[in-house]
Amino acid sequence: MIITKTPFRMSFFGGGTDMKEFYEEYGGAVLSTTFDKYCYVTARHLPRFFDYSNEFVYANIERVKELDEIAHPLIRNLMKFKDMHEIRLSYEADLPARTGLGTSSSFAVGMLNAFYGIKGKMVDKRRLADEAIYVERVLCNEAGGIQDQIAAAFGGLNRIDMDKDGYKVSPLTISNQRKNEFNDNLMLFFTGFSRFSAKVQQETKKNLADKTKQLLEMKSLVKEAEDILTDQHSDLNEFGRLLDYTWKLKRGISDGISTGSIDEIYDKAVNAGAIGGKLLGAGGGGFLLFYVEKDKQPAVMKALEHLLYVPFKFETEGTKVIYFKAEDYEIPERYL
């Protein structure tokens, strides 16, 4: 049996520039962090006492004999991709899916990590990220970028640069004191709306050619935000102002990114003292992140008291195995 623990991510700047159609031509850049909310994948071989060969427990429960019968596209494609058989797998998470935190990609990375463990292998974080990208974007044919899989695998507060030759992960050099101050000025709220990221991503993909100027500007903001965080003499509040600016840019890329309800919540927070913020993920609902000075936070909490406030801390480890016990398992001849 093996249990993996994989963090979720929040993207600050550069979202949209991590889509292949954009970064292969112009280069992309993203500033993001993982934080202390996780998904857990438990996997083991299924004992041969049942009239089914595989069992998967997530929002639904699936019991199947053949891999082609698996309804969940990510599980089905990953099982085939890694040639896994007779598996009992369960998924649990600290936060709900389809809410802008890269949950599906964290699941993909965590599942890959678990499958390698079952086979008695350890692979590096880049391989986990690369294979998660391949499974989601190619085998599952889901629209979207590549930042989520990279963040979930590597963990930490990073700048991620990508182009036609690949990607580079650069951890930000920032003191613990400044990092903690930055973390303390961020507030996360659940809007209660969830949506399928792929639908918004498909609309964004259609608009890429028309919105190149905005995306190039969003990419340039990554360097500005990085400089604010890494220069101890810079005013951290400028980060909040940049968040506000990039949110307004992002809203112009697709009609599906924001809604009237989201705009109303955003305005309430700003009127209560938030310097800036953004909707996390592709858009359409999920979690709103705000940059708020400590003395203004009670007022923002009051203004958004109808929403669920989610305190969090940054994390640095990325996906990892938290439990492993070797199994005696003989591969049936029909799988050889």
Short description:
The protein is an alpha+beta fold and 336 residues long.
Protein described:
By secondary structure, the protein is of the alpha+beta class. The protein is built from eleven helices and 13 strands. It has helices at 20-26, 73-81, 103-118, 125-139, 147-154, 176-184, 197-207, 212-230, 237-251, 260-272, 297-303; strands at residues 2-13, 28-45, 54-57, 61-64, 87-93, 157-163, 166-171, 186-190, 276-279, 287-291, 308-309, 314-315, 320-324. Helix 8 packs antiparallel against helix 9 (237-251). The two termini are 22 Å apart.
Any descriptors?
336 residues, alpha+beta, nine-stranded mixed sheet, four-stranded antiparallel sheet, 38% helix, 24% strand, globular
What is the topological layout?
Elements: E1 2-13, H1 20-26, E2 28-45, E3 54-57, E4 61-64, H2 73-81, E5 87-93, H3 103-118, H4 125-139, H5 147-154, E6 157-163, E7 166-171, H6 176-184, E8 186-190, H7 197-207, H8 212-230, H9 237-251, H10 260-272, E9 276-279, E10 287-291, H11 297-303, E11 308-309, E12 314-315, E13 320-324
Parallel strand pairs: 3-5
Antiparallel strand pairs: 1-2, 1-13, 2-5, 2-6, 2-12, 3-4, 6-7, 8-10, 8-11, 9-10
Radius of gyration over all CA atoms, rounded: 20 Å
Overall pLDDT score: 91
Number of strands: 13
Terminal CA distance reads: 22 Å
Strand content: 15-25%
Shape: globular
- pLDDT under 50 segments (min length 5)? none
Spell the H/E element sequence: EHEEEHEHHHEEHEHHHHEEHEEE
The largest sheet, given as strand count, sense and whether it forms a barrel, is:
9 strands, mixed
Number of helices: 11
Helix share, percent? 25-40%
Secondary-structure content class: alpha+beta
